[in-house]
UniProtKB/TrEMBL annotation:
Protein name according to UniProt: protein acetyllysine N-acetyltransferase
A Pfam family assignment: SIR2
InterPro entries cross-referenced by the UniProt entry: DHS-like_NAD/FAD-binding_dom, NAD-dep_sirtuin_deacylases, Sirtuin, Sirtuin_cat_small_dom_sf, Ssirtuin_cat_dom
Signal peptide feature range: none
Top-level taxon in the UniProt lineage: Bacteria
Keyword tags: NAD, Transferase
NCBIfam families the UniProt entry points to: PRK00481.1-1
Organism from which the protein derives: Companilactobacillus mishanensis
GO molecular function: histone deacetylase activity, NAD-dependent; NAD+ binding
EC numbers: 2.3.1.286
Domain Deacetylase sirtuin-type: 3-242
Length: 242
């Protein structure tokens, strides 16, 4: 029996979604690339750039926020904020499906799933726009104020950008609980636009039920086992056909 081509796999995914009782999407930076937001680990991604003093993992760390708030702020503003970005077909199609029967669990901090109208979203790593606050007094700020200045001049406090989980910090327990529930409830899990190398996010699949079907949509092969329906294609192309 010959191996299915990508078009046949997309048709299979379409059927799986139609027949599923509960679909959980696990998404990463690749989902937002068509909206003009760079990813992290691809050839031209954020983590491959060499223009900064420290490696990106340190630039996005709690330690850097506290010790070098000016450097942290510059990096985040230059590389992380894309307030004018609009959801693409992947976001809108996922919103449509998950609003009917499922959940989106995302690593992304850009809020584009919510902007697309998705009602059941677990922002595993938080986001850059909610609860921007002064670490000294707790006062909240709009992201536009944060982009201009990281200092709260009333008490000389450092302003923290949103609920985003930084390197060196733990994941919000509620996010872990909600993500695990989404995995356990699913009879279909679709992984889209992620290298699946960041833990604990990548470890969520350990909560998958044995009979739950797993699909991976990614430009690069993720080297998952043969039971996974692997669609090696641009996610935009795939979701346009669903």
């Amino acid at each position: 029996m010959s191996e299915k081509n990508e078009a046949e796999k997309i048709e299979e995914l379409k059927g799986l979604i139609e027949n599923a009782n509960y679909v959980t999407f696990l998404t990463g930076a690749g989902v937002s690339v068509p909206s003009g937001i760079p990813d992290y680990r691809s050839k031209g991604g954020l983590y491959k750039r060499q223009k900064y003093e420290f490696p990106p993992e340190y630039m996005l760390s709690h330690d850097n926020l506290i010790k070098h708030p000016d450097i942290f702020h510059q990096f985040v503003v230059e590389n992380m904020y894309f307030p004018d970005a609009e959801p693409n077909i992947i976001h809108t199609k996922m919103a449509e499906i998950s609003n009917e029967k499922g959940t989106i669990v995302t690593q992304n901090v850009d809020k584009l799933h919510t902007k697309a109208g998705a009602k059941h979203v677990v922002e595993f790593h938080g986001n850059l726009y909610d609860n921007i606050h002064c670490l000294t007094c707790g006062k909240e700020f709009d992201y536009k104020e944060y982009i201009k200045d990281y200092r709260h001049h009333e008490d000389d406090g450092i302003i923290r950008p949103g609920t985003t989980v930084l390197y060196g910090e733990g994941i919000n327990p509620d996010n872990i609980e909600n993500a695990v529930a989404a995995i356990e409830n699913a009879d279909l899990i679709v992984v889209v636009g992620t290298s699946f190398k960041v833990y604990p996010f990548a470890g969520l699949l350990s909560y998958k039920n044995a009979n739950t079907k797993l699909v991976a949509v990614n430009k690069e092969n993720l080297d998952l086992d043969s039971s996974v329906l692997a669609i090696t294609d641009d996610a935009t192309n795939v979701f346009e056909k669903l």
